[in-house]
From TrEMBL:
<keyword id="KW-1015">Disulfide bond</keyword>
<keyword id="KW-0479">Metal-binding</keyword>
<protein>
    <submittedName>
        <fullName>SCO family protein</fullName>
    </submittedName>
</protein>
<keyword id="KW-0472">Membrane</keyword>
<feature type="binding site">
    <location>
        <position position="98"/>
    </location>
    <ligand>
        <name>Cu cation</name>
    </ligand>
</feature>
<dbReference type="Pfam" id="PF02630">
    <property type="entry name" value="SCO1-SenC"/>
</dbReference>
<dbReference type="InterPro" id="IPR036249">
    <property type="entry name" value="Thioredoxin-like_sf"/>
</dbReference>
<dbReference type="InterPro" id="IPR003782">
    <property type="entry name" value="SCO1/SenC"/>
</dbReference>
<keyword id="KW-0812">Transmembrane</keyword>
<keyword id="KW-1133">Transmembrane helix</keyword>
<keyword id="KW-0186">Copper</keyword>
<comment type="similarity">
    <text>Belongs to the SCO1/2 family.</text>
</comment>
<feature type="transmembrane region" description="Helical">
    <location>
        <begin position="245"/>
        <end position="273"/>
    </location>
</feature>
<dbReference type="GO" id="GO:0046872">
    <property type="term" value="F:metal ion binding"/>
</dbReference>
<feature type="disulfide bond" description="Redox-active">
    <location>
        <begin position="94"/>
        <end position="98"/>
    </location>
</feature>
<feature type="binding site">
    <location>
        <position position="94"/>
    </location>
    <ligand>
        <name>Cu cation</name>
    </ligand>
</feature>
<feature type="binding site">
    <location>
        <position position="186"/>
    </location>
    <ligand>
        <name>Cu cation</name>
    </ligand>
</feature>
Amino acid sequence: MYFVYFKKIIVIMLFIFIYPVYSQVFNYKPSGNSALPPVDSIPESNKGVTIQEHLGNKIDMNLSFTDQFGKIKSLKELTKDGKPILLTLNYYRCVSLCSVQLINVAKTIKELGWPIGKDFSIATISFDPTDKPEDAKKKHDEYLSLAGQPEGEWNFFVGNQESIDKITKQVGFYYKYLPQNNEYSHTAAIFFIAPDGTITRYIYGISYKVNDVKFSLMDASQGKLGSTTDRFLLFCCYYDPNAGAYTGLAMGIMRTVGIAMMSFLGILVYFYYNKRKKLYK
């Protein structure tokens, strides 16, 4: 009689804990945008302006740019002591998209609270070859102040056309110069680079959730960044490439609970059959 009840308990527990996880996994639908405009409706100035993801590819860490102080630095120097890089591509005359993006990056970094330059680096590279170090210095002071870290190591770079072409092509960032108004047509994203140069994450748009930035830096650092709690939360989330963000906390928690319950049930089954063998010897 004891074994009959034990079997029933196992079946009930399997149904309670496994079915929700099963239904969540197999009923999941990506959050892609199904309302994109037809190709013919894209303005001429925006044609060819896009981002093509090169996840897993490596950028040339020996590429060098001139920082806000007029010093030439290679990207490799920013990864000293195994630091990942948060990269943005902008130009310093832009008062619309670039400004809004950098303001929001600074606000997110302020909310994150991690010291810039200590365990991770930030690099903003201008894709306008006419930008000068003094332009970069103004942006450096402005956005570090907004981030609440005036002494932080947020590098604002300028470079020649050859270096700009290499870095933009390697990360898949395609923009267009508009000579009629001396501006650039471009999109917005932030890129996460591992210490060895591997592109680990793209987050799109002009505003960023603090956890998306935190988890992306943790992924790029290969587990070196973040507290134990942060690592648990990262385990409970997953990166949705369609949404360009980390999502599914509930799904992740259910996954964790499911794994724990399966382990527990495995132990119960082991002791059950072990005891049964002893009774029938």
